[in-house]
Amino acid sequence: MKWTRVGLYTHPVRGENAPLIAPGGNSKNCIELTHVSKSYGSMPALSDLTFEIPVGGRFALLGPNGAGKSTTLKLLVGSLRPDTGYVKILGSSPDSKESKSVVGYLPEDALPYRMLSVRENLEYIGALRGVADVKGRTDYFLDELDLRQYEKANVGRLSRGNTQKLAIALALIHSPKVLLLDEPLNYLDIPTQEKVITLLDKMEGTHLVSTHIMSIADRLTDSVVMISKGMFLWEGTIEELRKKGSPEEPIEKIVARMMTGAS
């Protein structure tokens, strides 16, 4: 088995002969999945999944627990390969140098380097990512995410919330054109959630946020790709999603009805 390093995290790459990129492609799309299937042994995770996200789009990847959201993000960063189908980031294979240079990835339950300090993590990843002013960018995130008091502390001694703040900073430090975020507001208190939402609002580029919570999708994105049991269910704007119910119906009920109908 081959292993690949994606951002801060090491993952096995399976299915070495599986195709990753289709010929041609639409230059208006940032993210493309075409007839993608992925299984873990005999357990299917994704089944013939196809969707596209345009350059500059802000989309939520919405689905219940076990829908295949995290698997989809891992395919997009190249830490997994599809069994069948094609995956592209700005027209390139996810594990290409071109894709890795423009993608910022926050995995669920991210674990930065535990034996390094907060500052050392930021400066190390900033240097690896080719950030011009590593110290300035590090200082920015220490202050922006209230990590200044922990800058010399080893990550292994941080609370889960502060570890999540550091992981977010590491995903953003190189100002990526493509952001792939898996449950980014996990473990954060309400004031910190608002800081992160403001921070993400200010960032340009294409955002894909995996979540199973509609209120997070509503705050961080304006469009939705909905999946269930590894299959495509629906795609559209959040406003279009609201119109699928009555004016007084909470959007969560609309989403639940659509997902229940797909089960």
The outline comes out as globular
Helical segment tally? Answer: 9
Question: Which spans of ≥5 residues are poorly predicted at pLDDT below 50?
Answer: 1-24
The count of strands amounts to 11
Along the chain, the helix and strand elements come as EEEEEHEHEHHHEHEHEEHH
Largest sheet: 6 strands, mixed
Q: Return the structural class.
A: alpha/beta
Mean pLDDT: 90
Q: What value does the Rg take, in angstroms? A: 18 Å
Measured as a percent range, the helix fraction is 25-40%
The strand line-up of the biggest sheet is 7-8-9-5-10-11
Give the DSSP E fraction (strand runs of 2 or more residues). 25-35%
Notes on the protein architecture:
With 263 residues, the chain is α/β, with parallel strands linked by helices. It has 9 helices and 11 strands. The strands form 3 sheets. A 6-stranded mixed β-sheet has the order 7-8-9-5-10-11, with helices on both faces. Strands 4-3-6 form a 3-stranded antiparallel β-sheet, with helices on one face. The chain has a two-stranded antiparallel sheet with strand order 1-2. A hairpin with a 2-residue loop joins strand 10 and strand 11. The longest helix has 13 residues. It starts with a strand and ends with a helix.
Give the SSE layout.
Elements: E1 2-6, E2 9-13, E3 29-40, E4 43-54, E5 58-62, H1 69-76, E6 84-89, H2 97-102, E7 103-106, H3 118-128, H4 134-144, H5 160-172, E8 178-182, H6 190-202, E9 206-211, H7 214-220, E10 223-228, E11 231-237, H8 238-242, H9 251-262
Parallel strand pairs: 5-9, 5-10, 7-8, 8-9
Antiparallel strand pairs: 1-2, 3-4, 3-6, 10-11
